[in-house]
Design a protein that fits this description.
The protein has 22 helices and 17 strands. The protein is α/β, with parallel strands linked by helices and 593 residues long. Among the domains are: 108 residues, 3-Layer(bba) Sandwich (Glucose Oxidase, domain 1); 109 residues, Enzyme I, Chain A, domain 2 (Orthogonal Bundle), CATH 1.10.274.10. The two termini are 32 Å apart. The structure holds phosphoenolpyruvate and magnesium ion (MG). Phosphoenolpyruvate (PEP) binds next to strand 11 and helix 17.
């Protein structure tokens, strides 16, 4: 071992739980010097061809990775690579560069790099998080293309030694896509938001990941093992023998727990005192249906229809949508399927022609607002969902409703869609249950009014937290403020549940917090009867439910509702959780610091 000999503990943000012990592997992307060469005129077409081939090779690599991710069940991650494929089709990367190679007579890597630098300068001035995320995507693709143009082989995480702990300033999604859970022990980055694409990929693959760690000087520890504890966001450099043996035991226990969770698929999601919870899944792709069956989910609590239908960048016809919904509904064999109407705009699917340019898209024309404006497309979707309802237990969910007029207008389009289907003599179920997402504070505060006009409510904490606390859910710098444990958010959840009860309608919760087992007792104690989580998290949450005592959970909720800060709430949740599981290590989904 060279350099430092003392044990050093670094803290960061826990993104994906798990414990890894391995050798550090510093993943750097050295700034390579790109030569500027003058290409003879007679060879310029060959140079253009060389560039085209680099694009083609990059495309087939991304296609391959995409398929790999899909097979591994990392569906959301695969969708990110769809965005990369989309960028590769952009004329800015194809025709414009080819023209410039011809006009400047310079080598393609030089032209490509110069154009990228220009874009980067322009992007730097943009503060919109969506566009900044696109810059990351662009840089990711650029590295791949440059790797093809240069004779040197692009370095990839596939080449990292077995069980290495990868330290990187920043990882782009395709780096993580290449990371194999069996090969890479853990990821540690200096940058990275909890909801970044890379975080989604790591979670989907189950690779322990700690972000926002200041690890300068880690090179001094080469040769010594490193411990990563993704449950609490800790990285231990140069651990003592005592720490190492403690963590070896903890790691084994953790793996045993994961196996036990997976084996619990057939058990009922009920508390120790027999209280039944409805545990359903959020899905974006058809392949996730299999996971729901494997893990014994009670249904689909949130079908994000935009991912299923709009990934190709065009609006499918009624018939195409009907086939997509029907396939899922039939596969669920009578279990409930809650289909949410398109939730686009904001940071999602902005490339669609119906989504306009806006100064502040998160506060603009997104979700139900957009579909009410685009009412023909809305009715097309409603007709497809209604027809699919004939094949199972379909329920309809409207996203981001902010007040009664929107709900009434949406219902009037539903009535029109029904009338058109009657006229066409199509089969569908009358009076399918209608639900609304509660994601905007105005809807939460007036949910007594809304509850009279719908059949169920689903709390979308991902957005509710951002709108309630005025914190962009993707803003890394503000991430310390983004927490569902804030007393304001908890009071809103309590209020929504009470109004649901008073009006006799069920309330579910489908934001990411539903997948964090340390929140399970609190949510049940607040009266939430249905939790809808990423399919991969079903066993973990089921186990947390089965460890909960509903009477104690109710007391916990009462106590927590009297607290003044998110920090106090988090401390209480952690303490309660530790008592309940008696020192077991239950992975979290990265929501607690
Ligand atoms: C939410 O906002 O909590 C939610 C489930 O919707 P999405 O994450 O799709 O915005
Ligand atoms: Mg939402």
């Amino acid at each position: 071992m060279k350099g430092e000999s003392r044990e050093i503990r670094l803290r960061g943000a826990p993104i994906c739980a798990g414990i890894a012990i391995g050798d550090p592997f510093v993943y750097t992307c050295p700034e390579e010097v790109i030569p500027e060469l003058l290409i003879p005129l007679e060879e310029i077409e060959r140079e253009v061809l060389r560039y085209r081939q680099a694009i083609e090779k990059s495309r087939s690599e991304i296609n391959y990775l995409r398929g790999k991710l899909e097979n591994e069940g990392a569906i959301e991650a695969a969708a990110i690579l769809d965005a990369h494929l989309e960028i590769l089709r952009d004329p800015m990367l194809t025709e414009a560069i080819e023209r410039k190679i011809r006009s400047t007579q310079k080598n393609s890597e030089y032209v490509f790099q110069t154009c990228l630098n220009d874009y980067a300068v322009r992007f730097q001035e943009v503060t919109d998080p969506y566009f900044r995320e696109r810059l990351n995507d662009l840089n990711d693709i650029a590295r791949r293309i440059l790797g093809k143009l240069r004779s040197t082989v692009r370095f990839s995480l596939l080449e990292a030694p077995h069980q290495s702990i990868v330290f990187a300033r920043e990882l782009v999604p395709s780096d993580t896509a290449e990371a194999d859970a069996g090969r890479i022990g853990a990821l540690v980055t200096q940058m990275g938001g909890d909801t970044s694409h890379t975080a989604i990929v790591a979670k989907a693959k189950g690779i322990p990941y700690v972000a926002r760690v200041d690890f300068r000087g880690v090179g001094n520890f080469t040769g010594a093992p490193v411990i990563v504890d993704g449950r609490i966001g800790e990285v231990i450099l140069n651990p003592s023998e005592r720490t190492l043996s403690k963590y070896r035991v903890l790691q084994q226990e953790h793996e045993q727990h994961l196996r036990r969770f997976a084996e619990q698929g057939h058990l009922r999601p009920e508390t120790v005192d027999g209280y039944q919870v409805h545990l359903t899944a959020n899905i974006e792709m058809y392949q996730e249906v299999e996971l729901i069956q494997r893990y014994g989910g009670s249904g689909i609590g949130l079908l994000r229809s935009e991912y299923l239908c709009l990934s190709g960048g065009v609006m499918p016809s009624e018939e195409e949508q009907y086939r997509i919904y029907r396939r899922i509904v039939e596969s669920m064999r009578g279990k409930p399927v809650v289909i949410r109407t398109f939730d686009v705009g904001g940071d999602k699917f902005r490339e669609l022609p119906i989504v306009g340019e806006e100064e502040n898209p998160f506060l603009g024309c997104r979700a139900i607002r957009l579909m009410l404006k685009e009412h023909e497309a809305f009715k097309t979707q409603l007709k497809a969902i209604l027809r699919a309802s004939f094949h199972g237990d379909v329920r309809l969910l409207f996203p981001m409703v902010s007040g009664l007029p929107e709900l009434l207008e949406a219902k009037s389009y539903l009535a029109e869609a029904e009338a058109e289907l009657v006229e066409r003599k199509e089969k569908f179920r009358k009076n399918i249950p209608i639900g609304i997402m509660i994601e905007v504070p105005s809807a939460a505060i007036t949910c007594d009014i809304l509850a009279r006009e719908c059949d169920f409510m689903s709390i979308g904490t991902n957005d509710l937290v951002q709108y309630c606390l005025a914190v962009d859910r993707d803003n890394k710098a503000m991430s310390y403020l983004y927490t569902p444990a804030h007393p304001a958010v908890l009071r809103l959840i309590k209020m929504i549940v009470s109004e649901g009860n008073r009006n006799g309608i069920p309330v579910s919760l489908c934001g990411e917090v539903a997948a964090d087992p340390r929140f399970t007792a609190l949510l049940l104690g607040l009266g939430v009867h249905e939790l809808s989580v990423i399919a991969r998290y079903l066993p973990i949450v089921k186990s947390a439910i089965r460890n909960t005592n509903i009477v104690q959970a109710t007391h916990l909720a009462e106590r927590v509702l009297g607290m003044s800060t998110a920090m106090d709430v988090l401390d209480a949740l952690i303490a309660h959780h530790q008592e309940t599981v008696q020192g077991q290590m239950i992975p979290n989904s990265g929501l607690l610091p």
